Amino acid sequence: MVCCLLYAVHRYRLAQSLKLERLRTKIASDLHDEVGSSLTKISIYSELAQTELTEKEKANYLNSIGGLSREVVNTMSDIVWSIDNNNDSLHELINRMKDFATEVLHARNIDFEFTLHKAESNKVLDPVLRQNIYLIFKEAINNIVKHSKANKVNVFITSHPHFELQIADNGIGLPAQQSQSGNGLRNMNRRAVAIGGKISFASKSGTTITLTLT
Q: N or C: lower Cβ tally within 10 Å for the chain?
Protein backbone atom coordinates (compact mmCIF):
# COMPACT_ATOMS: atom_id res chain seq x y z
CA MET A 1 0.00 0.00 0.00
CA VAL A 2 2.79 2.41 0.98
CA CYS A 3 4.74 1.52 -2.17
CA CYS A 4 1.71 2.26 -4.33
CA LEU A 5 1.24 5.61 -2.61
CA LEU A 6 4.90 6.56 -3.06
CA TYR A 7 4.75 5.52 -6.71
CA ALA A 8 1.63 7.65 -7.25
CA VAL A 9 3.33 10.66 -5.64
CA HIS A 10 6.39 10.11 -7.83
CA ARG A 11 4.25 9.93 -10.99
CA TYR A 12 2.42 13.11 -10.00
CA ARG A 13 5.66 15.01 -9.37
CA LEU A 14 7.09 13.75 -12.65
CA ALA A 15 3.97 14.87 -14.53
CA GLN A 16 4.15 18.30 -12.91
CA SER A 17 7.85 18.61 -13.79
CA LEU A 18 7.16 17.73 -17.42
CA LYS A 19 4.27 20.19 -17.50
CA LEU A 20 6.52 22.95 -16.12
CA GLU A 21 9.27 22.12 -18.62
CA ARG A 22 6.82 22.31 -21.54
CA LEU A 23 5.63 25.69 -20.28
CA ARG A 24 9.20 27.00 -20.00
CA THR A 25 9.95 25.80 -23.53
CA LYS A 26 6.79 27.48 -24.82
CA ILE A 27 7.63 30.79 -23.13
CA ALA A 28 11.19 30.70 -24.46
CA SER A 29 9.88 30.03 -27.97
CA ASP A 30 7.38 32.90 -27.79
CA LEU A 31 10.00 35.30 -26.47
CA HIS A 32 12.42 34.33 -29.23
CA ASP A 33 9.93 34.33 -32.10
CA GLU A 34 7.74 37.29 -31.25
CA VAL A 35 9.52 39.58 -28.79
CA GLY A 36 13.00 38.94 -30.20
CA SER A 37 11.91 39.76 -33.74
CA SER A 38 10.18 42.98 -32.68
CA LEU A 39 13.14 44.14 -30.58
CA THR A 40 15.50 43.55 -33.52
CA LYS A 41 13.31 45.72 -35.75
CA ILE A 42 13.12 48.44 -33.08
CA SER A 43 16.91 48.48 -32.87
CA ILE A 44 17.29 48.76 -36.65
CA TYR A 45 14.65 51.49 -36.98
CA SER A 46 16.21 53.44 -34.09
CA GLU A 47 19.57 53.47 -35.85
CA LEU A 48 18.01 54.47 -39.17
CA ALA A 49 16.06 57.30 -37.52
CA GLN A 50 19.37 58.83 -36.40
CA THR A 51 20.75 59.03 -39.93
CA GLU A 52 20.30 61.92 -42.36
CA LEU A 53 16.68 61.51 -43.38
CA THR A 54 13.79 63.80 -44.17
CA GLU A 55 11.42 64.66 -41.34
CA LYS A 56 8.74 62.51 -42.97
CA GLU A 57 11.05 59.49 -43.16
CA LYS A 58 12.08 59.93 -39.52
CA ALA A 59 8.42 60.21 -38.49
CA ASN A 60 7.65 56.96 -40.32
CA TYR A 61 10.42 55.12 -38.49
CA LEU A 62 9.33 56.56 -35.13
CA ASN A 63 5.74 55.49 -35.80
CA SER A 64 6.98 51.99 -36.61
CA ILE A 65 9.00 51.91 -33.38
CA GLY A 66 5.91 52.97 -31.42
CA GLY A 67 3.78 50.26 -33.03
CA LEU A 68 6.38 47.55 -32.42
CA SER A 69 6.82 48.67 -28.81
CA ARG A 70 3.09 48.29 -28.21
CA GLU A 71 3.20 44.82 -29.77
CA VAL A 72 6.00 43.80 -27.38
CA VAL A 73 4.04 45.10 -24.39
CA ASN A 74 0.93 43.19 -25.51
CA THR A 75 2.93 40.00 -26.09
CA MET A 76 4.54 40.19 -22.65
CA SER A 77 1.12 40.85 -21.10
CA ASP A 78 -0.28 37.73 -22.83
CA ILE A 79 2.62 35.59 -21.57
CA VAL A 80 2.32 36.83 -17.98
CA TRP A 81 -1.45 36.29 -18.04
CA SER A 82 -1.10 32.74 -19.39
CA ILE A 83 1.24 31.57 -16.61
CA ASP A 84 -0.67 33.19 -13.72
CA ASN A 85 -2.46 30.43 -11.79
CA ASN A 86 -5.21 32.90 -10.89
CA ASN A 87 -6.25 32.81 -14.55
CA ASP A 88 -6.42 29.03 -14.98
CA SER A 89 -10.20 28.71 -15.40
CA LEU A 90 -12.34 28.84 -18.52
CA HIS A 91 -14.17 31.75 -16.88
CA GLU A 92 -10.99 33.86 -16.80
CA LEU A 93 -10.18 32.93 -20.40
CA ILE A 94 -13.62 34.04 -21.56
CA ASN A 95 -13.32 37.31 -19.62
CA ARG A 96 -10.00 38.11 -21.30
CA MET A 97 -11.43 37.28 -24.71
CA LYS A 98 -14.39 39.57 -24.07
CA ASP A 99 -12.11 42.40 -22.90
CA PHE A 100 -9.95 42.12 -26.01
CA ALA A 101 -12.93 41.94 -28.38
CA THR A 102 -14.58 44.93 -26.70
CA GLU A 103 -11.44 47.05 -27.00
CA VAL A 104 -10.66 46.15 -30.62
CA LEU A 105 -14.09 45.76 -32.21
CA HIS A 106 -15.85 48.69 -30.56
CA ALA A 107 -13.03 50.97 -31.71
CA ARG A 108 -13.98 49.99 -35.30
CA ASN A 109 -17.76 50.23 -34.68
CA ILE A 110 -18.15 46.47 -35.09
CA ASP A 111 -20.92 44.90 -33.01
CA PHE A 112 -20.19 41.59 -31.34
CA GLU A 113 -22.06 39.02 -29.30
CA PHE A 114 -20.77 36.24 -27.04
CA THR A 115 -22.87 33.10 -26.66
CA LEU A 116 -21.97 30.50 -24.03
CA HIS A 117 -23.58 27.05 -24.21
CA LYS A 118 -22.90 24.54 -21.45
CA ALA A 119 -19.55 26.20 -20.82
CA GLU A 120 -18.03 24.87 -17.59
CA SER A 121 -16.76 28.20 -16.29
CA ASN A 122 -14.82 26.62 -13.39
CA LYS A 123 -13.03 24.13 -15.63
CA VAL A 124 -9.26 24.37 -15.10
CA LEU A 125 -7.20 24.81 -18.28
CA ASP A 126 -3.54 24.03 -18.78
CA PRO A 127 -1.50 27.27 -19.26
CA VAL A 128 -0.27 26.26 -22.73
CA LEU A 129 -3.80 25.28 -23.78
CA ARG A 130 -5.26 28.50 -22.38
CA GLN A 131 -2.64 30.66 -24.09
CA ASN A 132 -3.06 29.05 -27.50
CA ILE A 133 -6.85 29.27 -27.42
CA TYR A 134 -6.60 32.95 -26.53
CA LEU A 135 -4.02 33.70 -29.23
CA ILE A 136 -6.10 31.90 -31.87
CA PHE A 137 -9.06 34.05 -30.84
CA LYS A 138 -6.92 37.19 -30.86
CA GLU A 139 -5.57 36.40 -34.34
CA ALA A 140 -9.09 35.81 -35.63
CA ILE A 141 -10.37 39.12 -34.25
CA ASN A 142 -7.39 41.02 -35.66
CA ASN A 143 -7.98 39.43 -39.08
CA ILE A 144 -11.62 40.51 -38.98
CA VAL A 145 -10.64 44.10 -38.23
CA LYS A 146 -7.97 44.21 -40.93
CA HIS A 147 -9.58 42.32 -43.80
CA SER A 148 -13.25 41.40 -43.42
CA LYS A 149 -15.12 44.72 -43.76
CA ALA A 150 -17.61 43.20 -41.31
CA ASN A 151 -19.88 45.15 -38.97
CA LYS A 152 -20.92 42.23 -36.77
CA VAL A 153 -19.12 39.33 -35.07
CA ASN A 154 -20.65 36.38 -33.23
CA VAL A 155 -18.60 34.28 -30.82
CA PHE A 156 -19.88 30.91 -29.63
CA ILE A 157 -18.20 28.83 -26.91
CA THR A 158 -19.13 25.46 -25.45
CA SER A 159 -17.25 22.86 -23.42
CA HIS A 160 -19.81 20.05 -23.76
CA PRO A 161 -19.30 17.37 -24.93
CA HIS A 162 -15.96 18.92 -25.94
CA PHE A 163 -14.52 22.42 -26.19
CA GLU A 164 -15.49 24.39 -29.27
CA LEU A 165 -14.83 28.01 -30.16
CA GLN A 166 -16.57 29.53 -33.17
CA ILE A 167 -15.97 33.06 -34.48
CA ALA A 168 -18.25 34.23 -37.29
CA ASP A 169 -18.42 37.58 -39.08
CA ASN A 170 -20.68 39.00 -41.79
CA GLY A 171 -17.85 40.38 -43.91
CA ILE A 172 -16.60 39.70 -47.43
CA GLY A 173 -15.25 36.22 -46.67
CA LEU A 174 -11.86 34.73 -47.47
CA PRO A 175 -10.47 34.90 -51.01
CA ALA A 176 -10.02 31.33 -52.32
CA GLN A 177 -6.25 31.71 -52.62
CA GLN A 178 -5.97 32.81 -48.98
CA SER A 179 -8.22 30.17 -47.42
CA GLN A 180 -5.25 28.33 -45.92
CA SER A 181 -2.18 30.32 -46.95
CA GLY A 182 -2.28 33.64 -45.08
CA ASN A 183 0.19 34.17 -42.25
CA GLY A 184 -2.59 34.66 -39.70
CA LEU A 185 -4.37 31.49 -40.82
CA ARG A 186 -1.13 29.51 -40.73
CA ASN A 187 -0.47 30.77 -37.20
CA MET A 188 -3.92 29.66 -36.08
CA ASN A 189 -3.42 26.25 -37.70
CA ARG A 190 -0.04 25.87 -36.00
CA ARG A 191 -1.43 26.76 -32.59
CA ALA A 192 -4.41 24.41 -33.02
CA VAL A 193 -2.09 21.51 -33.88
CA ALA A 194 0.12 22.35 -30.88
CA ILE A 195 -2.79 21.74 -28.49
CA GLY A 196 -4.17 18.70 -30.31
CA GLY A 197 -7.08 20.56 -31.83
CA LYS A 198 -8.60 21.06 -35.26
CA ILE A 199 -9.43 24.37 -36.89
CA SER A 200 -11.59 24.99 -39.93
CA PHE A 201 -12.29 28.04 -42.08
CA ALA A 202 -15.60 28.46 -43.89
CA SER A 203 -16.35 31.38 -46.18
CA LYS A 204 -20.07 31.79 -46.76
CA SER A 205 -21.96 34.99 -45.95
CA GLY A 206 -18.78 36.08 -44.19
CA THR A 207 -16.13 33.95 -42.52
CA THR A 208 -16.56 31.34 -39.80
CA ILE A 209 -13.57 29.98 -37.89
CA THR A 210 -14.13 26.91 -35.72
CA LEU A 211 -11.63 25.50 -33.22
CA THR A 212 -12.46 22.07 -31.82
CA LEU A 213 -10.66 20.23 -29.01
CA THR A 214 -11.59 16.61 -28.36
A: N
